[in-house]
Amino acid sequence: MRTRTATWKVTWRWAWVLVLVVGLGLFELVRRVVLATENPNLVPSLILLGAVVGPATFVVFVWGRRLSFGVDPVLVGLVAVVGGVVGVVTAGALEYDVLKDLGPFQMAGVGVIEETAKLIAPAVVLLVVRDRRAATGLLLGVASGAGFAALETMGYALVAFLKSQGDISAVDQTLLIRGVLSPATHMAWTGLTAAALWAAVRHRGRSRWMGRFAATFVVAVALHAAWDGIGTTLSYVVLAALSLGLLALAVHRIGHRRSPYGRRVRAAR
């Protein structure tokens, strides 16, 4: 039994490699057929695969870490889909007025709206499940951010295709850039805020933990606003490194929490 359990853990730990390889293989297959046949009917499939591979790989990567999650893969996938759709629709509806009315504070307003919208699905799950571990919140936050990022990337890729009058290279560039950066943006920020929200609820809304959640949310909004507002290559590199660093720190702290007796306990899958 122990051997089977250990094998299962190892399998999940490296499952992200399989997702990445298979996903990229399917994307390249569709891409080659599109280039060879110039069939526009296949472009939606190309955009869908290109937008989903990166976020899906990162969700599976987080799932394979040595953390204790209280949800199953079906719920994680559901949060990714529902969270992405609800987040994109909510943000799209509200941002129209924000971009028009907030003037110089547009980027901050967009950051608040999108970071709140991506938390809707995880927050609903929080109301109906008993699990209150921060690891679960982090995973569901990453999943919701993944769904949001994938749908947003599909939109940008479609616009690039139309503006370039059918140039596949423009679509490739958009998918590559956003696919690589999505773990360091929407997924990292929502993962951090959802983990902090789960921890606050687990500690029954005590002021200390609610303060941590509020501070984490403000940091996520600030990173989001800086990402949208500065827009230089150097700023993207710095902000990506900072965002992933904060997420890695959160994973480390959750996975190496201390027990009530002061002993360090590694969370087991």
TrEMBL record:
It comes from the Bacteria. Pfam families: PrsW-protease. Keywords: Membrane, Transmembrane, Transmembrane helix. The chain crosses the membrane at residues 12-30, 42-63, 75-94, 106-129, 138-163, 175-197, 209-227, 233-254. This is RsiW-degrading membrane proteinase PrsW (M82 family). It comes from Amycolatopsis thermoflava. The lineage of its organism: Bacteria, Bacillati, Actinomycetota, Actinomycetes, Pseudonocardiales. GO terms for molecular function: peptidase activity. Coiled coil: none annotated.
